[in-house]
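Lab notebook, entry 913. We have the chain sequence and a SMILES string for zinc ion, and the next step in the workflow is to get a structural model of the bound complex before anyone spends time on docking refinements. Request logged below.

Task: model protein plus zinc ion, output structure tokens.
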Amino acid sequence: MTVRLPVLVSLLVLVGCAADRPAAPRPSTPQLTAAPPPAPAPAAPEGIRLPRTFRPAAQRVWLTVIPSAPGFSGRTEIDGTLDSATDVVWLNADALEVGAAAARVGTEEVRAEPVVRQDERMALRFPRALPAGPVTLRLEFRGTQFTQEDSGIFRQQSGGDWYAFTQFEQTDARRAFPCVDEPAAKIPWELSLRVPVDLTAVSNTPVATETPAGEGMKEVRFRQSRPLPSYLVAFGVGPFEVKEARAAGRKRVPVRIVAPRGRAHEAAWAARVTPEILEGLEDYFGIAYPYEKLDVLAIPFTVQFGAMENVGLVTFRETLVLTRPEQDRVERRRAYAKVAAHEFAHQWFGDLVTAAWWDDIWLNEAFATWMETKVIERWAPAWGIAAERVEQRNEAAEADALVSARVIRQPVHTYDDVKNAFDSITYQKGASVLRMFEQWVGAETFRRGIQRYLQVHADGNATARDFLAAISEASGRDVAPAFDAFLDHPGVPRVQASVRCGAGGATLELAQDRWLPAGSTGDGAGLWQIPVCTRWSTRGKEQSRCVMLDAPRVEVKLEERSCPDWVLPNAGYAGYYRLQLDPAWRARLARSGKLSDAERVGLLGDTDALVRGGVIPRSEGLQLAARHAGSREHHVLEAAIRLATVREDFLSGRLGPAYAAWVRKVFGPHARALGFRPKPAEDDEVQLVRPSLAGFVARRGEDPVLIAEARSLTEAWLSQPRSVAPEVRSAVLTTASQLGGRDLHQAFTQRLDRTADVDSRDWLLEGLASTRVPELLDDNVALATSGRLNPREISKLLVGGRWKEVAPPADSAIGRSRMLTGVDRTWDTLVTLMPRGGLSRFLALAGLSCSADERAESERVFGPRAKSILGGPRRFALALEKLDLCVTQRTREVPELEKFFPPPRPSRSATGG
Ligand SMILES: [Zn+2]
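Result returned:
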């Protein structure tokens, strides 16, 4: 097939590439005109925003996209208004070559000179001032379809075919076409794609016309969209196969799953549940799904996002959407439903109503995170999603305990700020704070406020002010001051609680400050208005009450005459604060047996934080974990395992075997009863529990029975993959590899080279990453930089799971040390292999470290490089703070562990006495 790019008639200008961005290739024969002597460039606007002079009203884009070709070309027209007369108009553009540019004012065409900048902006300079009023800008350009990036327009191969995709959030629409690339610029878009005739093109809206364009090409024109910010524009081009789902919602919109060629049959689950989830959301919002259709598009791999809420064309990492039927598992099915609920919730929150600027991005992300659990709770009550909400709270509070943590509504002035705005503070803390205030004002009142907010701002932008006004109006009280304290101040509060019983009955004493773990350099002062809802029981009779904790100390009368059996001053753990009950009441609560699963997850999570933070002794933490070792609910059991997990670094000498014996004793009976092999007719919960529990007891408890089982299943999987249940493959391969040697490592590597199946590759990579043999870890670095892995796989092999997860190889000192050396040695290669925003993942190697030596090494490796990583400076600061806190914890905790695991006394029986 031949590719003909449009002939650019005038100056070709390479528009701003940030220093670490790959430049678009220059065309082989650029037709540079003899330029007049350059006039001085217009003064750059400050910060990263464009000047307000030009306000766009609608944009049309024509692109020629051939997925098998490295470049693309296009032209665009932007209708808008000039607020005042000017001879310079600013737009965003990055890694684009801009050719002819002009403005149409009335019937007159005024040629413009595009002026290069290095900061993702470009100026159109006109020979004379254009008058205030309507104007249409016209530009021709060409750019790169990236292969290592998963942003802008990028292309990937699947099954030997090339596909092109887009990812524009946060600020990468500007790499596809010049535009006003800011969330407040919400305008209708009209997209036309010129693509090879045998390919399918999808975008935000249905196809309007498809016409032959000659030379093996066709032109696919899509209908004009409702007003959208540029970051929500999206398309895909390739030999897709489509699975139709049923029409959904009040307007019966068509729903489809768009998969790579030949793989639509892997989308059965997605096709079944997508319409149901969409309808659940419609119900809650009381507003019909706002767009004309919904396509779910599977992307082979992504690094910097898992899914994206593009209007009408929601993209997902393939593993969430597609799975061979014989490899499907409960966990994956639930993951799709939850992520889908999140992305579809954005169609209202974020898409229909958009945050005005990136500092209010929590309005999108906190909402979608909160709504995801809300809609799943109604749709699949058996999934125990309330416990997951508390897991999110635990995760947020963990991040928020750091002094270098952001605030939810952090000012955004730089691209680093934009990147960092998408973190667990925005998502999980935001969601947890929403949940707390939902409980405070009442679920139905809160819902009315949300519906009002969406109706008033539909197709427009909004800010935190607008949202809080809507909730205040619905609830009849001003929620803003209490809410603001959580939005604009860093940190998670700690509520210390105790009960005073006497002749006058029972009084609950509450005190607040900022939760900071021992060793923190932060200031513990802090005053929030915290809604505290307390549940308690007196002689078997349960009661509850909510109060506003708005002073440093507050007393609440619980009972006139008697003393409660137990109190829980965080009912449902819906409150966003760490709860520290005094020891006697902690013991009563632990013994009560009256907590919901969600509350157990909260109690275990808070105890874990308070143990690591030096407030509760490790021994008490281990005992509480042991109480829950038999739990059959997977959230509770996983929380118990987290609390029972002592870092390997802390267990030198005899402590290692002593800890392993404890794990076997406490968790072993449950784990061995389940084993790694499924039994007939097990429910979902058992399938979810098995891999974490059996894996934990095998790896950390060194349980010989489970290890033997993992080894034999690994061999079975290598010769006959279907013989091993899909949900345990990761746990089994990881266990076998941690205790295995070179032969197994080689077997995994050879299998990896032969398999294209994404799931199998993930399992193999997790297995490879789990080795503890130094030379094999070095082999992993060589494999990661060999060019045989995609960027997501590279990060998995070198760092392990996600940023917050402690997974091999980063869970052991030897793993971290070898990977850090490897990353240092191969940095220049990694920069060429990873997306620019993906390099920050390697900083996790520092954040999971726990010694002065590791700190020095991390500073040597990352210190000079963090500045060149997008979002790097803040993430490196967070990583070092975590490292320092861990060093403090280690110093304190090792003697405690020595005490908890006393040396065995000389045995009398051994000497025959
Ligand atoms: Zn989101």
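Notes for the group: Residues 103 and 137 are 4 Å apart (CA to CA). Worth checking against the assay data. The longest strand covers residues 71-82.
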